[in-house]
Amino acid sequence: MISRRAAAFPLLPSRCFLLCYTSRQYQYRGFTTITETSVSSTVSDSKDPPSPPSERPVILNFEEQSKLIFESIKSLSARTLNPQIKNNQPLTQFEQYQIEKAARETANKLGVVLEPHYKPHELITNPPSPSEVTLEALLAAGAHLGHATALWNPANQRYIFGIRQGIHLISLDVILAHLRRAAKIVHGVSQAGGIIVFVGTRDGHERAVVEAARRARGYHITERWVPGTVTNKDQLLIDQKLRVVDSRDREIRLTRRQKEGLQATLANDKDTQGAEPVQDTLQVPHKFGAVRPDLVICLNPLENQTMLHECTQYRIPTIGIVDTDVDPTCVTYPIPANDDSLRSVQLIAGVLGRAGQEGRLARYEADEEREEELEKTRKADRDKKQRERDESGRDQMHNEAEEAASEARQREIEQESELDPK
């Protein structure tokens, strides 16, 4: 049985519609019309037998009534603003503004108040910090849902909470503990200025991966991992240039003398003869080799076994989302969670990106404090040198005064000896 529902959409001053959905079991209700003397409408039960209802919703047009309501409000507001106003005199812009303001204030009081609720889109635009992640957020994102019991990996037994309808459920406490541990690793690497790479090659991972890498000032891979990127980097990355930055991720610029010296070094080196002219960015000769990442975060380890194997060979730590069908030993720091849910992946990637951002800001703050301490030390050294110079100047002036006094005394003695006939 379909229940009776009604929705009113006031669109003053143009139109006002009332949409009524009725069923065959309910009678129609009558609506009294609005006259010039009455601006109210009442709803009363009709005693007459109802007419056969139609299958489509009944739309009642109250355009004339809305015009009468607006005219009455207009006249009442005008008389309230200026009792001496005439009926035929047009309203001023200020009076129209007051009427519209009163209508907005009245309309704003209608409706319901939205309580704090779950907003999935904020998992990417405004992800929570590691300390703000709750079990409710993980539950809403579906991070606890695993695979069928027939597909499970026995190594994940310590992460599984139970079974429901043939599906393994991951413990939310375990997910939260492992997520915060991984976030702490990302925070430390970012604070130390390490290179972090986010990898997510499934459909729908691109936006979350790019946003997390942007927050952590890292790098991202959203397409197929090229085999040999780590093990054979000198051949695959031979055309890439190295960019040197300072502790605040600002690119270091070269002076003219440094450019000329580096250009001479490149010209004298056999491996770099015929290289391009040195530009503003710092160009390091290729013989130093490409740079390997300090941490790799993989959102789908099942499809990136080659990348994880290369990272294992060069002892690069990895963080990955491990579902119940994945071997948790393939990554260094596993996060047991649902890797098939986009909300779950977005939440975990957002938390790790926020941890990298906090570590980067902590590095900037520490660098500022270091610069302040260094500036204080330099100022103290300058003040000390200035005091030493002042003291040495005073000592020199005192010595010169003593020498002048001794010379004057010596001249006096000589003059007395010349005057004495003895």
Automatic annotation (TrEMBL):
Native organism: Orbilia ellipsospora
Protein family (similarity comment): Belongs to the universal ribosomal protein uS2 family.
A GO molecular-function descriptor: structural constituent of ribosome
UniProt superkingdom: Eukaryota
Biased composition (Basic and acidic residues): 373-422
HAMAP family, per the entry: Ribosomal_uS2_B
GO-annotated cellular components: mitochondrial small ribosomal subunit
Protein name: 37S ribosomal protein, mitochondrial
Region annotated Disordered, chain positions: 359-422
CDD domains registered for this protein in UniProt: RPS2
Gene Ontology BP terms: translation
Keywords: Ribonucleoprotein, Ribosomal protein
